[in-house]
């Protein structure tokens, strides 16, 4: 299997021979991938395939048993999550991780502190530069909330938002860290068809407006096939396919992997989902 992405563009993220074992279980097995700069790339596969584990290794939440991750030519392997974030990679979580008791605005402002120049205690003593920076962070955060259609809810407690809005808030917080590379773990989970459709258009706009590379884990085939230019498929920790949406749709190994799924989605084959995409 080649590690060259199907678009042939220069990679910004390189994964080489990544393996992560949890005791006897090999969650990710000798995975090599190249993600093209400026692309919207999909990472798909049945439940338990290892997709979230790949995100956790790339973003520094887990150390791989073996292998390397490079971003724009710099090694990321072994860096803690805040250093990976400072290097320009930001993520959302499959299980939403917001500060539930904080306001919507505060959740986004927290993301901005990764780029803050002054020390946090300078704000406490009202140092003019620190106060100015805090004001700028607030304004930028409000602007981001506007982008995500959440400006009207800035002062609401985060836990009071509907599920789809909480997912958008997580994206706003990820953007507040001013990333170059955004990793979205099942952003359409729990969304209704109309929200998923809006998300599809929104992901495209995000890439263009913020000049991002986006890596997307998603079970909703309509979203994956509609927005991704390059798709990588994992099954039980192994890379089984890489290609354009039409190549992946027609790949017998991919169809087999989805048909063999034991989770609820097993009733709906990839073929059927793709036909509706
Ligand atoms: N912290 C952990 N400790 C032990 N096993 C783990 C841990 N995290 C993940 N696993 C196991 O590793 C395998 C891959 O899990 P992962 O969450 O990466 O799958 P996934 O492709 O994201 O699945 P899903 O589509 O259900 O989210 C699974 O068998 C899972 O149970
Ligand atoms: Mg997952």
Which fold name is given in CATH as the topology of the largest domain?
Rossmann fold
Category from helices, strands and their pairing: alpha/beta
The topology string of helices and strands comes to EEEHEEHEHHHHEHEHEEHHH
Number of strands: 10
Name the CATH homologous superfamily of the largest domain.
P-loop containing nucleotide triphosphate hydrolases
Order of strands across the widest beta sheet? 6-7-8-3-9-10
The CATH C-level name of the largest domain is Alpha Beta
- What Rg is obtained from the alpha carbons, in whole angstroms? 19 Å
Low-confidence stretches: 262-269
What's the CATH architecture name of the largest domain? 3-Layer(aba) Sandwich
Keywords:
10 strands, binds adenosine-5'-triphosphate, six-stranded mixed beta sheet, single chain, 277 residues, binds magnesium ion, alpha/beta, 2 domains, Rossmann fold, four-stranded antiparallel beta sheet, 22% strand
